[in-house]
Every structure is written in C-alpha cells, then in structure tokens.
Amino acid sequence: MRKETMRLTIAVLGLLLLASPLAATAQAPPILPQDPDAVLVEELVVTAREIGPAWWRVSDGDSTVYVMGVPSVIPKGSGWDPSVLERRLEGANRVILPFNNASVNLLTVPGAVISLMRLRAGAPYEETLDPALRSRFEAARAKAGQDADRYKTRNGMAAALLLVSDYRDAASLTAADPAKTIGRMAAARGIRVEAKTYDAAPLLAAVVRTPPAAQQACVLEALAAVEAGPASAQAAARAWAWGRVREALGGERSYERCVAAAPGAAELDARLKADQTQAIVSALRQPGHSIAVVQLRPLLSQGGVLDRLGAMGYDIRTPAED
C-alpha cells in the first residue's frame, strides 16, 4: 500500500512542481484551468553570462542567496558544468532544495488508506474507455512497460498520473536530479541542507474528488505526453545545461492545468511558492551567502518565487547581470 500511495502522491506533486513536458493537444476539453505558471516575468528570462546552468541572485544588505533554476524533469545522466555551484558552495550557510517531497504521517494514514481504496477498482482503467481511446491507452502503457492490471482504477486522474510516472521511468527521465546531486555535494562539505515534506493524504483525497470531465482531460494530456516521447525534455535539459533559460522553459509546460482542476490545487500551489519564498527570506537574515534550488517555472512566473521576493523589496539580479 505504501509504495502505491507514494507513487501517486509524487505524481500529483510532479504535476505541480516537477512537471514532465507534454505535447500540445487539441483533444483536451476546455474545462481545465490555465497552467498557474503560464505567464512569466519576462525580464527574468535571460541567457546566463557564465557557463553552465543559470543563477539568479537575491540580496539584502550583507546577505545573498544564489538561486539555481532547474528543470522539473531531466534525462538521467544528463551532464552539466558544476563549476559555479562548486564555487558558491564554498562558505555557504545552507542549501535549500526544492520543496516537493511528500509522505503519509501517522495522523493521516487512515485518510490516505481510505482515498487509496476509493481509487482502486477490480478491473483495469482502459476497460472504461471507448475503443479509440482504449487503443491509445494500451499503446501508451505498453510504451511505459506496464500491463493493464497496473492501472486498476476508475479514476482518470489517478490512471493518468501513474501512467506518466511509469513513462518517465521507462524513458529514463528523473525528477530527483539535479537537486539530489546538489544536496549530496552540499552534505559532503558539511553544509546544512534544507528540504520540506508535505502530507500525502490531502493530495490523494484531491485526486478522488476531481470531476469526471477533468479526469478525462487529464488522461488525454497524459497520452499526449507519452506519445510525444522524451525529445522535449532532452532538448530543455541541453538548453538548461548551457544557461539558455528560454529554451530550457520549453520543456517545462506540462499538465499543470490538469492538476489545477483538482480541488485545493490552487491553494497548494500558492502554499508551495510561499514556503519556498519564506525559506529564502530566512536565509537572507544570516550574513554571508546561501544557495537555493527552485524549478524554473515556479521560480520565474508571475506570482512565482522571484516575483514574490521582488515585491518584498529584495534586490534581484538575473543571470545576464551576474
């Protein structure tokens, strides 16, 4: 039970923060909210002056936080130049990793179990689909290396999230890096590493409560992602590694609109950004410098992390100025 719960939970968070790139599709019904990170703060979207991934700098007097924007998914084994990171790790007060972990705590285990049981079904999800859509789903889960029994649910969003998670695994795409590597590098130097874990139970409950029409739209989004293949993620990762921010953002527009249809999704998205912003503010209270790692779109969007910090009066410099 726990493994299935965590996979679905990570998939939900993945749609909000660790999005996998999707091809545009005209088949999705126009019922889904707009991607919460669709509108960018254009003056922040620049090409880095230094070699390697782009960094933004947030300052307040004698304190600075260097913020690395990272893709939400990246091909496993992707190479990138860590020289700027290594230089900034020297003497750093702390390293703040993306706030995207989830777990079921003891107080909410009963609710998580109930939600998981409501998501389960006795027959595979594809048996609920019309012949054309069923054929597409069968082909997609075969591409992900899974059989029909893997998706025993009548909930379209649950099936879609699990399908994309399986596809990522099969396509060697990971949401763990580069943050995992950065955290390991920091820990090896004895630098304090910060992360945040959220309760999985409300996320599962939101999947259960998602309206049927939105579930159907999410299935179409997931199928488009699998059918498109990993080329978009690969291209975005290459651009990111060279500091070409606008091109790197090309792989970030996934199906945030899909999860935005789930009850409470907007509030969760705002909470995640507020928490990441506050972690940077806390680091700025200590003289010296720290490092933060934030996914590119939540970092650069209107209402995103840098937009919030700018509104608070902090000085922000782009990778073109650094």
Q: Counting H and I runs of at least 4 residues, what is the number of helices?
A: 14
Give the termini separation.
Answer: 48 Å
Mean pLDDT: 84
Strand content: 5-15%
In the predicted model, the low-confidence regions spanning at least 5 consecutive residues are 10-30, 106-110
Sheet with most strands: strand arrangement = 7-4-9-2-1-10
**Biggest sheet, open or closed, and with what strands and sense?**
6 strands, mixed
What is the succession of H and E elements?
HEEEHEEHHHEHEEHHHHHHEHHE
Radius of gyration: 20 Å
**Backbone structural class:** alpha/beta
Shape: elongated
Please summarize what this structure is.
The chain contains 14 helices and 10 strands. By secondary structure, the chain is α/β, with parallel strands linked by helices. Helix 1 crosses helix 7, helix 3 packs parallel to helix 7 and helix 5 (156-170) packs parallel to helix 8.
Describe the structure.
By secondary structure, the protein is an alpha/beta fold. It has one domain (2-317). Helix content is 47%, strand content 13%. The protein contains 14 helices and ten strands. The chain has helices at 2-16, 83-89, 109-119, 131-143, 156-170, 179-188, 200-209, 212-228, 231-241, 245-248, 256-260, 265-284, 296-300, 305-311; strands at residues 55-60, 63-70, 74-75, 94-96, 101-103, 173-174, 192-194, 197-199, 288-295, 315-317. The strands form three sheets. A six-stranded mixed sheet has the order 7-4-9-2-1-10, sandwiched between helices. A hairpin with a 2-residue loop joins strand 1 (55-60) and strand 2. Helix 5 (156-170) runs parallel beside helix 8 (212-228). The model is unreliable at 10-30 and 106-110 (pLDDT under 50).
